[in-house]
Amino acid sequence: MLAKPICAVALGCSALCVALPAAAQSTPELTLTRIDCGTPVHNDVSARFSDTFAYKDLKVWFTYSCYLVKHGSDYLLWDTGHAMNAGAPAPKVSIVDQLAQLHVTAEQVKYVGISHYHADHTGQLPSFPDATVLIGKGDWDGITAAKPHAGANVAPFTHWITGGGKIEPLAGDKDVFGDGSVTVINTPGHTPGHHSLLVRLKTMGNVLITGDLAHFHENYDGNGVPVFNTSRAETLASLDRFKKAAANLKATVIIQHDARDVDKLPAFPAAAQ
Ligand SMILES: [Zn+2]
């Protein structure tokens, strides 16, 4: 990307000019599409979503969102939502059927990034047995422990636990495609290995997707910590990191569960570019 101004300003259109922008020209197409991964629920968040008793009667519409990132001919699916048999919050249409509307098959999904091990983020993982699963090491350790962590949805990972699929436990961040365009960011606290997602789109600009770093605007704005998070200190440190990154990158922040953030991206099947 830096090559362009150097070319135009300092070098004119020399032979070098042709060579340098080649990398920029080959930057693959990058798009971001919201996939619906559950039926919205009107949640009373007053009891469990603040360990400082911040909310008396607050009810928030929770949505369940997954995201498809297209990077050239490669795809990353971020989170896999509720399972189709999850009861009231189960999705109406599976991820695989929504991908079909985009003319994308499960086999084309190279990576599945899992923000964390809870059931509403992992339910449809078994539909993607060929994908390399990116998940925080802290969560992977919690899934594979002799006594799995409370809240870890172990069953969908069976194919990967038994060696049938590729898994990449992340101790820190992961530059997914090696060009800085899509980064899985280490934001522990909700769970030990929780991660968020940064997508650096050309037209829309930078987008930061929270995972469950915060579940709704009130908690994001007020550094709220749910009582069921695994670490209050890590949650606050992760919120601090995420907010500073969002400010520095002038990023659009999408709180994955907050229904008020759904229209920050184009409605399915349209993609942000
Ligand atoms: Zn969660």
Description:
With 273 residues, the chain is an alpha/beta fold. Helices cover 23% and strands 23% of the residues. The strands form three sheets. The protein has a six-stranded mixed sheet. The chain has a five-stranded mixed sheet with strand order 9-10-11-12-13, with helices on one face. A two-stranded antiparallel ribbon has the order 2-3. A hairpin with a 2-residue loop joins strand 4 and strand 5 (74-78). It is globular and about 50 Å long. Residues 1-24 have low confidence and may be disordered. It binds zinc ion. Zinc ion binds at residues 116, 118, 190, 212.
How much of the residues is beta strand, in percent? Answer: 15-25%
Category by helix and strand content = alpha/beta
Task: Please describe the biggest sheet, giving its number of strands, its sense, and whether it closes into a barrel.
Answer: 6 strands, mixed
Strand order of the largest sheet: 1-4-5-6-7-8
Helix content: 10-25%
List keywords for this structure.
273 residues, alpha/beta, six-stranded mixed beta sheet, 9 helices, 23% strand, globular, disordered N terminus, binds zinc ion
Write the layout of secondary structure elements.
Blueprint: H1 3-11, H2 15-19, H3 22-25, E1 30-36, E2 41-44, E3 59-62, E4 65-71, E5 74-78, H4 95-101, E6 109-114, H5 119-122, E7 132-136, H6 137-144, H7 158-161, E8 167-170, E9 174-175, E10 182-186, E11 195-200, E12 206-209, H8 217-221, H9 232-249, E13 252-254
Parallel strand pairs: 5-6, 6-7, 7-8, 12-13
Antiparallel strand pairs: 1-4, 2-3, 4-5, 9-10, 10-11, 11-12
The structure holds zinc ion (ZN).
Zinc ion is lined by residues 116, 118, 190, 212.
